[in-house]
Amino acid sequence: MRRGLAVAILILAATMARAAPPEPDGYRQEDYRSPTPAALRGATTLTTPEAERLWRAGAAFIDVLPRPPRPTTLPPGTIWRDAPHDSIPHAHWLPNTGFGELAPQTEQYFRSGLSAATEGSVDKPVVLFCQRNCWMSWNAAKRALALGYRHVHWYPDGTDGWGEAGLPLERASPAAP
Prior knowledge:
Layout: H1 2-19, E1 44-45, H2 48-56, E2 60-63, E3 86-87, E4 92-93, H3 104-117, E5 126-129, H4 135-146, E6 152-155, H5 158-164, E7 170-171
Parallel strand pairs: 1-6, 2-4, 2-5, 5-6
Antiparallel strand pairs: 3-7
């Protein structure tokens, strides 16, 4: 019985090790939709119940899910409408700010959006998220730390975990620049 339990624990540990890659030194530059590390140095990694407690307490929530680009194959003059995006209620959606490298105007959009969400306080708790297995939120949380925010929380399960827990989602629009 003990041997069987030990084998099961070893298999579980090996599976978890494969699912969570090591934390890189820099930002993730590619394959953004893939397993993420188990943690981010300097940030608090949240479970869904922990994220819900911070949400109810009024922490700033930042959604960094990218906007899908307009298909290049659409004929000129074709009307393009973004797909609807549901997010955690009252979250600030700052699309395209979780890539590994940001254009200067996107970097400024992230900075100003983060400042607006935290009311200009680097001490206000901030929760960064996207979807499960999305490096965008990991990159954005790392970027918030680099900007001097002191209470950075990373919610790796994002809207997937939130919705699966039966918590509310609402239609989101990108935050104004």
